[in-house]
Amino acid sequence: MTTPSTRDLKARAQKLKPVIHIGHDGISPGVVASLDQALSDHGLVKVRFTDWKDRRRELSAELGSRTSSRLVLLVGHTATFHRAPAA
Questions:
Q1: 23-37 tens-digit pLDDT
Q2: pTM of the model
């Protein structure tokens, strides 16, 4: 992805509220399914880590891999993912 499009995604992400919350269960199949559906519906989704904050970087990478999405931004305890719509 190019730098201008990444900048655009980051700007759009600022206005979003987290849709998915990672709690004490971590990355469960339900969380992955919810994120996958939210990405299909919206394309750009914020995920908030309410637990597992010390492992948010590696869990974000795993979520991106399991949902075929790209981690756009990781600020504090919130990660933003993007997946282009299917053609």
A1: 999 999 999 999 999
A2: 0.91
